């Protein structure tokens, strides 16, 4: 299994190496004041096996994109991530809180295939949050989190590199 599947199944303690294959800027109005905007960055990430498009950069680290530290095709290491079930339709989102840029300029790696969420089922029903700081102190903020994964045989451990 690739790192993206492991994250979506709740294994957020792993410091995965991923490639940013897409970045989209979303501007949101803050507090109904049309003169104040906040930027959100939605990312498409690849683990070399699959891509996942429901990823968001925490606004506190927007400066990494704004200072051109990373861009499309950059290689990053995820140091802190949260998996958020955004509604009762079992849609998940990865929120990146801390990351390190391994290589800013890179070529696209692998034959990318969009991650099929039919292989991953969140049986919790309610909104669930998982957060970690990668020191084996995983915090489960809602106890109804339950995941079923249908596995296919893989070669190796599934790391990007």
TrEMBL record:
Origin superkingdom: Eukaryota
A GO cellular component annotated for this chain's UniProt record is: nucleus
Q: Which InterPro entries match?
A: NA-bd_OB-fold, Rep_factor-A_N
Signal peptide from the UniProt entry: none
Annotated Gene Ontology MF terms? DNA binding
Q: Give GO BP annotations, semicolon-separated.
A: DNA replication
List, for all copies, the residue spans of the domain called Replication factor-A protein 1 N-terminal.
Answer: 8-104
**Annotated coiled-coil segments of the chain:** none
Q: What is this protein called?
A: Replication factor-A protein 1 N-terminal domain-containing protein
């Amino acid at each position: 299994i690739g790192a993206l599947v492991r994250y979506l199944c709740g294994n957020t303690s792993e410091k995965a190496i991923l490639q940013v294959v897409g970045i989209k800027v979303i501007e949101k109005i803050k507090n109904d004041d049309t003169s104040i905007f906040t930027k959100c960055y939605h990312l498409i990430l690849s683990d070399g096996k699959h891509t996942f498009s429901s990823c968001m950069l925490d606004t506190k680290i927007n400066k990494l994109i704004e200072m051109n530290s990373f861009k499309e095709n950059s290689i990053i290491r995820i140091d802190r991530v949260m998996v958020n079930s955004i509604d009762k339709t079992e849609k998940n989102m990865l929120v990146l809180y801390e990351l390190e840029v391994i290589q800013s300029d890179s070529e696209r790696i692998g034959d990318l295939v969009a991650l099929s969420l039919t292989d991953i089922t969140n049986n919790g029903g309610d909104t669930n949050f998982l957060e970690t700081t990668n020191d084996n102190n995983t915090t489960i903020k809602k106890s109804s989190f339950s995941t079923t994964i249908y596995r296919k045989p893989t070669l190796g451990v599934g790391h990007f590199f």
